[in-house]
Specification:
The structure holds two protein chains of two kinds. By secondary structure, chain A is α/β, with parallel strands linked by helices. Chain A contains five helices and seven strands. The longest helix of chain A is centred in the N-terminal third of the chain and has 22 residues. The chains are: A alpha/beta, B alpha/beta. The interface between A and B is medium-sized, with 16 and 21 residues.
Chain lengths: 153, 697
């Protein structure tokens, strides 16, 4: 049980740290994305309703499990790099192979919200990988929920 | 409130009191108390049921609250165990714990759901959570680093976290409900208790009012009255309150009246037991009681005391001729008359049919008693009118006075009885006071009676025969049998002395039978067909047995009927009509001759002479005695003889003692003569020798 207790406390720490980061001094992502488009949740909704874009949820799968944009793919971005535009992608892990194979397919990345660096970094990685229609829904899950938009659970 | 109001406004106000309204008056106190108790019980049962119901609701609400609480605990447990499941990489214990928590949750949820629509919706949500849990559990390798596990875990967590507020809300609601139910149950209980208390108080007050009503407002008063009634003080009425007309006091008053009535009846019964109803005088029993008492008092006070026996004369005749109703009226009248003569301390009693008695106290001397007796005779014999007819009543009084010689009550009464007997003997409407001489006389009589009883058996009775001769030829015509009693000590006793005694003692029939048989047997032995004359007594004729008896004797002795001549006194015909008629007819039919004895001594109706075909008249000896002294007597005898001859009868003159008498009756054409001059009564043997003497002369 000590291990379970340790892991549990670790998990809790994880969740708490995320909350603290959201509330505290975690920096916001840039409002622009070179090679991609920053969109609002309303625009994301239009894309969703059009059915043309693939939504990529980069948050922890646990949060994905709790609720996500309908039809979104859970492709967690395992983040260890700093919250900065010039992040070191080599320390992070993002399974690009789980994105649609067609690089021209429109993608919408989102994570927790304006401080959600995971989706920013994932969008950056996708752009670098050659995807042409990368959208970064910067408002993320927080705005989506705040706007009371459809949710899949 | 009064009974009047209750009566005038029947049932106008249901609150009106406990017993005065006509509606409730139909029920007894017992019924009312019973009904009250029944209603109290029903009300209590109702309150108990309501309280029980409240308690049951409370219990149910508490069970729901407990389930809701269990649900909350189970949900939180599920959260924790599912976390453990993740962290322990799907360890068995975590899986078991998770499943257990889920099962618990479902269990509590089901318990809560029941009739609750909201909880039914929760159930649907829970089933979605269960599906997710199952999906998580289906993952073979649960791990925090595994996306799939995390996604499923996240879904589960989300579901549970979304569910928990609902659970909390349900718990809160259940708690609230339980609290409310508890409050309600408590309210029911408290109100029930209050209600019961009020009812009990009301019942108690009502009961008190009823008791007060029953006791007329004062228990000690009722007790006192009951005690007074029990002690027999029935005169004062019981105070019945107008406000409580149906109280115990009213019952006591009713009882008092009943007791009074009963006392009156008892007094009446006692009076009847002590008095003669017809006359209102004391009866025989109370007379004797009172006499005992009076004798005792008189002796103690050394005062005189007298007992008077009063017997009405000819009362039987009055009863027979006027009827019993009139006879009763005579008794009543006499009693009233006697009562007026009494002084204070004297007592009047009626001892039997026409027999009264008076106890006269404080009698000093015989003069006083004589005076009293005279007044009684005057008063009783005063003429009176009964049933429109004037009736003359007479009385005979026998008096006995208390003196040292009197032994006791019985002795005193016996002496009064003896005195009365003498009064009657001395002639009616007179009185007699007992004295020693009377006692001796009567004692003598008593002894004689005893001797007479024995005389027949001892052969002391004899028959003498007096010859009867033909008036003209001086030839023997017959004999008259005459009874003689030779008493061993007193010598010969004349029939006039002992025949009434025999009649009184009931010996006369036996003696008469003996005479008949003896005389007939003798007559048969006579050498000539001479007539045998026998005297009959009243009693013999009244009994009605005589004709058969005569027939028997004639048959037995062989004496021809026409030789037997039965003599009946004239007075007999006057007083005893009915039986005499039939007996005389029967005797005539036998062929026996009938002779009327002592003719002229009474008031014979000539019709009788004709009706019964008397064969002979015997002229009363007083006429014969008067012959030669009184010229009218001569004429009367002549008239009797010619009358008798005219009716076909023969005439005998008896009591001939002198020659001039004989000469006269011979001149008057009497058929037969009898008397000492011609022949004295003699025993059979001497009679025969006399006969022979005469024949030889």
């Amino acid at each position: 049980m000590p291990t379970i207790a340790k892991r549990l406390s670790c998990l809790c720490l994880c969740l708490i740290s995320a909350a603290v980061a959201q509330a505290g001094g975690k920096p916001e992502t840039p409002a622009t994305l070179p090679g991609g488009t920053v969109i609002s949740v309303e625009e994301g909704l239009r894309l969703l309703q059009a059915g043309s874009a693939t939504f990529i949820d980069t948050r922890n799968p646990l949060n994905f499990g709790k609720g996500h944009v309908p039809g979104a793919r859970a492709v967690a971005y395992r983040e260890k790099s700093a919250y900065a535009v010039d992040f070191d992608a080599s320390v992070d892990h993002f399974a690009l192979d789980r994105l649609p194979g067609d690089t021209s397919a429109p993608l919408v990345f989102y994570s927790d919200g304006p401080t959600g660096w995971k989706s920013y970094k994932a969008a950056m990685m996708a752009i670098r990988h050659g995807y042409g229609k990368v959208n970064y829904m910067r408002g993320g899950w927080a705005d989506w929920r705040a706007a009371d938009l459809p949710v899949e659970r | 409130m009064t009974a009047v109001e209750g009566a005038t406004l029947p049932g106008s106000d249901p609150q009106q009191g406990t017993g005065e309204t006509p509606g409730t008056q139909r029920f007894s106190l017992r019924t009312r108390v019973g009904l009250g108790a029944l209603m109290l019980t029903l009300a209590s049962l109702l309150l108990l049921t309501l309280a029980w119901n409240g308690l049951e609701r409370m219990e149910r609400a508490q069970a729901r609250a407990a389930s809701a609480n269990g649900l909350l605990v189970a949900g939180e447990m599920l959260l924790r165990t599912s976390g453990e499941l993740m962290l322990s990489q799907g360890s068995l214990s975590a899986r078991t714990g998770t499943r257990g928590a889920a099962a618990d949750t479902r269990l509590h949820l089901e318990a809560l759901t029941g009739e609750d629509a909201a909880m039914a919706a929760h159930m649907a949500r829970w089933e979605a959570i269960e599906t997710r849990l199952q999906a998580l559990l289906d993952v073979r390798l649960i791990d925090v680093s595994d996306d799939q596990s995390l996604i499923l875990y996240g879904g589960l967590i989300q579901g549970i976290e979304a569910f928990m507020p609902l659970v909390r809300e349900a718990k809160q609601r259940a708690d609230e409900e339980a609290g409310n139910a508890l409050n309600r149950a408590a309210a029911w209980l408290v109100s029930g208790l209050i209600g019961l208390t009020v009812l009990a108080g009301f019942a108690g007050l009502t009961l008190l009012r009823m008791l007060d009503h029953q006791l007329g407002g004062d228990p000690s008063l009722a007790r006192g009255v009951a005690q007074r009634l029990a002690d027999g003080h029935l005169d004062a009425p019981v105070p019945v309150s107008e406000e409580h007309p149906r109280s115990v006091m009213a019952g006591l008053e009713h009882m008092r009246i009943k007791l009074l009535e009963r006392r009156a009846i008892e007094q009446r019964v006692q009076y009847l037991a002590r008095h003669d109803v017809l006359s209102g005088a004391l009866n025989r029993r109370s007379f004797r009681e009172l006499l005992d008492l009076s004798i005792e008092q008189a002796r103690r006070a050394r005062e005189g005391l007298a007992v008077l026996y009063i017997d009405l004369d000819r009362f039987k005749a009055i009863n027979d001729t006027l009827g019993h109703a009139q006879g009763d009226e005579v008794i009543r009248l006499t009693a009233t008359r006697l009562r007026h003569l009494l002084r204070r301390g004297d007592h009047l009693a009626r001892l039997g049919g026409d027999e009264f008695a008076i106890i006269a106290s404080q009698i000093t001397d015989q003069d006083g008693i004589t005076h009293l007796c005279q007044r009684i005779l005057d008063s009783v014999s005063a003429p009176c009118t009964v049933g429109n007819r004037e009736v003359a009543i007479g009385a005979s009084i026998g008096v006995a006075m208390l003196d040292a010689s009197v032994g006791g009550q019985d002795d005193l009464l016996h002496k009064a009885d003896l005195a009365m007997y003498r009064a009657k003997e001395n002639g009616r409407n007179g009185f007699s006071i007992y004295d020693e001489a009377l006692d001796g006389q009567l004692r003598d009589r008593h002894e004689l009676l005893l001797d007479l009883r024995a005389a027949l058996g001892k052969g002391q009775l004899h028959l003498h025969y007096q010859p009867i001769y033909s008036s003209q030829s001086q030839a023997l015509a017959g004999y008259e049998a005459l009874l003689r009693w030779h008493h061993p000590r007193r010598g010969d006793i004349p029939p006039a002395d002992f025949i009434p005694l025999a009649e009184e003692a009931g010996l006369i029939e036996a003696i008469g039978d003996w005479v008949l048989l003896e005389a007939c047997s003798e007559a048969v032995r006579w050498p000539g067909p001479w007539t045998l004359s026998i005297n009959l007594s009243v009693v013999q004729i009244e009994s009605g047995r005589l004709p058969r008896r005569v027939a028997e004797v004639l048959a037995r002795t062989g004496l021809p009927a026409n030789r037997l001549e039965l003599e009946i006194t004239e007075t007999l015909l006057m007083t005893h009509r009915e039986p005499v008629d039939s007996v005389l007819s029967a005797l005539s039919d036998l062929g026996v001759r009938l002779s009327m004895d002592d003719f002229g001594s009474g008031y014979s109706s000539l019709a009788y002479l004709w009706q019964f075909r008397f064969d002979r008249l015997k002229i009363d000896r007083q006429f014969i005695e008067g012959l030669g002294h009184d010229p009218r007597v001569d004429q009367v005898i002549g008239a009797i003889v010619s009358l008798a001859h005219g009716m076909g009868m023969r005439v005998t003159a008896e009591g001939i003692e002198r020659d001039d008498q004989l000469a006269y009756v011979q001149a008057s054409c009497c058929d037969e003569v009898q008397g000492f001059l011609l022949g004295r009564p003699a025993p059979p043997g001497q009679a025969a020798s006399d006969r022979n003497d005469q024949e030889t002369e």
